[in-house]
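User: Please predict structures.

Assistant: First:
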Amino acid sequence: MPNTLIHIAIQAPLSRAIFRKAEIPWILAGAIIPDIPWIFQRFFYSIPIVDPFHLRLYATVQASLLYCLLFTWAITAFARKPGPVFLLVGGNCLLHLILDDFQIKWGNGVHLLAPFNWNTMDLGFIWPEHYAGYLLSVVGIIYLLFLWKTVLQEGLFLSQTPRWKPAVVCLVIYFFTPFAFMGQLEKSNTHFLEVIHDTAIRTGRSIELDRVSFHKETATVTTFTREKLSVTGAVPQQSANISLKGIFLNPNSLYIEQFHVHNSYRIYASLVGLFLVLLIWLSLLFNRRFSPHTFKESR
């Protein structure tokens, strides 16, 4: 998935070009909402008592387009013009997911029709380490820094009478209903989740894993469930974070057919982007620059 700075570099100028008076903080919110489940997953993954497999199921449901729109409806209930702002933020959520699909993600993918259909989109044109990603990451930083003063001057225009009821209802649905769909998600074997969870069916089955840790000394990979699998076949020359395609030789060992080595730039670029967006929102809320505002679409 593209890092946060890439999403900002593409989505913010495009949205601003289509909706000339669109408030940049809302655009930035739409560029981040689909990643919120994965941010929380990373946080809770560090807690030993949390089951990483069910945490992944939960986050995968929440990262679908429908749940992104539920979260969008909840936060835009506080906007002065909730309808247009919902379209702006929701449109950016959709664009975020489409951009995610442009990158190669073995054992991963975007759910646009969930929970009605668990098939994933997977266009997969370039790896995250492609030079275009580095270039767009720099563009994202420059864009935010260049418009920082403009954003603070324009302010953030919120409703004086927030619509609390729809916001609370949407958040309750967003946080509690994913449990109802986790079983369907596992049985669909989306992201190879069924094969990962059910060791009895593994032998002879294909598997794709996104960003797992390969340990050269022990010839193992550690999956997101914290399980260590012995590996043979095509393996890296040194320990690394890799994506792979392979076949289970038995429940505990895997033959790797292909692999791709990742670096750490993506996570650090995302942290920078998230920090800058959070700083913008906190600055606006702290300054309380709330005043009447008319949202107009450019013709």
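Second:
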Amino acid sequence: MSENQKGTFTFNLELPKADYMDVCKLSAVYGVSVEELLENFLCDLVYGKGSNGSDECYHARKWFDRCWFGMTAEDTFLKYLIENADIDDFVERYQCLQECEEELKQLQEGEEKEAEDWKKEIDYQQARLKEYYDDYANDAGKPESYEDGVATIMEWYKDSNSRLEVIEE
């Protein structure tokens, strides 16, 4: 999916019934759906392509930063990769590493040349992944373990991508 292609994402929200009804009423008064309201707010929050302008983005981010979740970001490996725009490359390399390890397991006796090639690729991917982790560990006050960090990253990746359905335009 390209960055400009629209998608449909499903989230489950837990709201008191009264709050839900108030949001529905507010949306109705201004002639927008609850979905449109949330879409606009989320685009403003992340300075997205569908934002309503720099002032709206500024205020949405200020709101976020003032809430409890905006003040408590831990120094996780996932946070480090996202903030340094390395998350996609890391996930691709990790998935490649897993595929290489699986291919290596499938080889039969007499396929030593192929095994060496797979081992070289595995070593290469492991070294690149270790570089990412070492950079994170040097920046973080109390870094989480590599294993815990990777488990969180892959869980986040799976969850965030499982919500996506491409809309044909």
